[in-house]
# Entry
Amino acid sequence: MAAKPGKVKLIEQFMADGLDVMFGNPGTVEQGFLDVADRAAGFRYVLALQETVAAGIADGYARATGRPALLQLHAGVGLGNGIGMLYQSMRGHTPLVAIAGDAGVRYDAMDSQMAADLVVMARPVTKYATRVTDPRSLLRTVRRAVKIAMTPPRGPVFVALPMDVLDELNDEPVLATSVPVTACAPSAETVARAARLLAGARKPLILVGDGVSVAGAQAELVRVAELLGADVWSVDSSEVNMPASHPLARGQLGHMFGERSSAVVADADAVLIVGTYVFPEVFPALGTPFRSDARIVHIDLDAYEIAKNHPVDLGVVADPKPALAALAAELGLRLTPAERRGGAPTPARTEEAEDTTLECFVRELARQTGGDLIVFDEALTSSPAVVRHLPPDRPGDYFLTRGGSLGVGIPGAIGAKLAHPDRTVVGFTGDGGAMYTYQALWTAARHSVAAKFVVCNNGKYRLLDDNIAQYWRERDIPGHAFPSSFDLSHPEIRFAELARALGADGIRVDKPEQAAEAVRRMLAATGPFLVDLRV
Ligand SMILES: Cc1ncc(C[n+]2csc(CCOP(=O)(O)OP(=O)(O)O)c2C)c(N)n1
Ligand SMILES: [Mg+2]
# Structure
């Protein structure tokens, strides 16, 4: 392989892995390879004005393509800005390949301006963090990082790239990264054990998370649920794992209070957990919430998550798709016709909600698109209305914010639109969430990304109001005014004007009667378009 400067080979290596778009924010210590990237045929750089935005767009792009996304950060300061968003990528298992430059190995002893231990900074929010110090192992290291990002459990990785290493001549071969196949099925004996534990249960329950969607195992999951007649609850679920409209789908357990999960699982005599961990709340129950005689089977590709907090009767390291397919086949043989439940009757849906501006807007959106759109949901307290009218049924059409870091909605929708330029993509966020990453609208305008954005504007951090109300109830503290730090009403944030100032179009919607026309305008817009929806 011909020797070329490492910075040239680096871009060739990215291209060999199909990594042809990089999201980032530049700095001097990255100038060498950014200069090369700018002139590399077929390579695209998407400029963000703040690293949280770059990381959020990369996260949405990786989620919507199912492939790794490239994120370039500037030294320690840029990495520092990106860390909150990298944290949510790590919790959500997004395969991001983050890189940052540094001045050079030759300056290590100088402790000069901008010196930072990048690897130590990145380690807690990545699966793998390293620094290349020898020019002969540049591409080898990058390939290892890509492989680790893509191997379940997927997640972000970080490689620090010193300038002098990238300027040296490099004669490593450029090769596509070998990503191992992990679609491993359990043995017939293990499947039979799982079926024995689950069959014949009077109150079977299934808990599922994003491991199902990564494996593409939705159909197999539905089959097992129908055979057992089990309720299916989503746990730490941010994509379509169980179609929301299926009669056995019961919704999300939620991310805040363990009591909710404990109440849901309390009666179950057999529990199947697939592709998630239990339990995902900020305040999880510390005791075991399961019945002492409940039989518990946990299937996951990540052995760490199995029995992490509560013991199980059978833990199975396997890919959910072949594992659930085998389990369905075994249950089909084993269950007597009387035991096959064939799915519970459709529960009566508790609707119709009031005709608020939010309800009317989302209902109109569902009507005018026929549900054919991709939703990126960071609507928080407005999310129930969004999913009521746009139920997450089709894999790849719904992405929920994850990991608890605000500011994902607008960048996430931009990433999804870049991944699927021909689809309608709508990102929902709150007035709080929007302001963490509002600069992303400039990136959408600059790169002609025609995603749509809806700010569900209630003038407050409403979720914080709801949570402190619960805290007061639990501790018998009499209700009183919410902390003023949860209020965003003054000065008023004029989102549509702010969008226009950043190069995107924007309108404000105050009343239900304006919803239909607003949706029409939004869908007709040929560029990025934002609706300030007063909810
Ligand atoms: C980066 C970050 N900072 C702070 C928080 C704490 N937080 C959680 S929910 C929330 C309020 C969100 O408000 P908004 O987006 O307007 O949605 P609403 O609750 O009003 O529906 C805040 C500030 C967070 N999750 N992430
Ligand atoms: Mg709000």
About this structure: The chain has three domains: 4-170, 188-343, 357-534. The mean pLDDT is 95.
